[in-house]
Design goal:
12 strands; alpha/beta; 4-stranded antiparallel beta sheet; oxidoreductase; about 15% strand; binds flavin mononucleotide; 8-stranded parallel beta barrel; globular
Length: about 325
């Protein structure tokens, strides 16, 4: 018997796939999703995901080993597809028999899905269109995350509510689809589950949990912020396509525009090729996020946060956040009879 029978019934497929009690993932957050938060999420009945970000294979190796010391529950690893050492990072996941690998940041390069499945792990992917999602499922992907523009970090152009209405009726009957972006309370989880989602993924709500190692000043900035403070970066030069990033507005927001102008200037003088220019932008974000999360420089660093930041008011243990979400979902489903 469970405390949340209606929610668990709707989460059954997702929870079985993840090997968890609840089908709630904490999406990987660079610098934030390290062993402490990941283990706390998994120990709390959810599914933690290590953010590999720009880590080297050796660092990832140590992070997975460290996480295993803190939990014996399942957790995943998020790899960025444009990482130059992707093949070696996949091999590190294989060495540790990681059960689930999330491929983020672009279309998985040829051979990557096969390499992950080769050591028996499940592959979770992102896709911006239904056609691409179907193609990825045909090529062996086991589950999909649809992530709306309300989310924190790098985002696409479409809102979660619209993605859910497009993707879930088309895919959820035959495939596992998890919904992410802007989820702050359990009532929203109940809604997406009823629409056919296998589960949900949250980031912003977990970023400031007690177990998160984010700097106290980073957490304070979240507690003070409202939904409207989590704004998207703008593209200042048409020649340099940058993926929008949602973060709390600060001096770093303007610094990013300066950085873009600098990189675009180097494109003009052919000092940089387009691929290298885009990589410089991504390295900039990784560095800026580190400044805020690790060093606590909340003025100049990047405070990546989703619009649900307005619902993050205080530090709470992960287990309480998860049980609160489950209780809200259950109450909403019960009210419907
Ligand atoms: C601070 C921060 C860092 C993030 N870093 C990553 C990342 O490295 N890789 C990734 O795939 N998603 C990243 N995300 C997105 C989350 O995994 C998750 O999908 C998103 O936060 C869900 O939306 P929400 O913020 O509205 O809950 C990040 C989000 C935040 C808030």
């Amino acid at each position: 018997m469970t405390d949340f029978p209606k929610t668990h019934e709707l989460m059954r497929r997702g929870a079985e796939f993840l090997g968890t009690e609840h089908a709630i993932l904490c999406g990987a957050m660079s610098w934030v999703s390290e062993r402490n938060l990941v283990a706390a999420i998994s120990n709390g009945g959810g599914f933690g995901v290590i953010a590999c970000g720009a880590m080297t294979p050796d660092l990832l190796d140590a992070e997975i080993a460290g996480t295993k010391e803190l939990t014996d529950k399942p957790f995943g690893v998020n790899l960025i597809t444009m990482h130059p050492d992707l093949t070696d990072l996949i091999a590190v996941c294989g060495k540790h028999k990681v059960g689930h690998v999330v491929l983020a940041g672009g279309i998985p390069p040829k051979g990557s899905v096969e390499a992950i499945k080769g050591f028996g792990a499940k592959v979770i992917v992102f896709a911006p269109t239904i056609a691409l999602a179907k193609k990825l499922f045909r090529s062996g992907a086991d589950a999909l995350v649809i992530e709306g523009m309300e989310a924190g970090g790098h985002i696409g152009p479409v809102s979660t509510s619209v993605l859910a209405q497009e993707f879930l009726p088309a895919l959820a009957e035959d495939h596992l689809v998890f919904v992410a972006g802007g989820i702050g309370r359990g009532e929203a989880i109940a809604g997406y589950l009823e629409m056919g989602a296998a589960g949900v993924q949250l980031g912003t709500r977990f970023a400031c949990a007690t177990e998160s190692i984010a700097h106290p000043d980073f957490k304070k900035a979240f507690f003070r912020a409202n939904a409207r403070d989590a704004i998207t970066s703008v593209q200042v030069d048409a020649r340099l396509p940058v993926i929008p990033v949602r973060a709390l507005k600060n001096k770093g927001t303007e610094a990013f525009n300066v950085k873009q102008r600098d990189v675009a200037g180097k494109l003009d003088t052919e000092e940089l090729a387009m691929g290298e220019a885009q990589l410089q932008i991504e390295r900039y974000w990784a560095g800026a996020l580190r400044r805020a999360v690790v060093d606590g420089d909340v003025e100049n660093g990047s405070l990546m946060a989703g619009q649900s930041v307005g619902m993050v008011k205080q530090e709470e243990p992960v287990a309480e956040i998860i049980s609160g979400l489950m209780a809200e979902s259950e109450a909403a489903l019960t009210k419907r009879g």
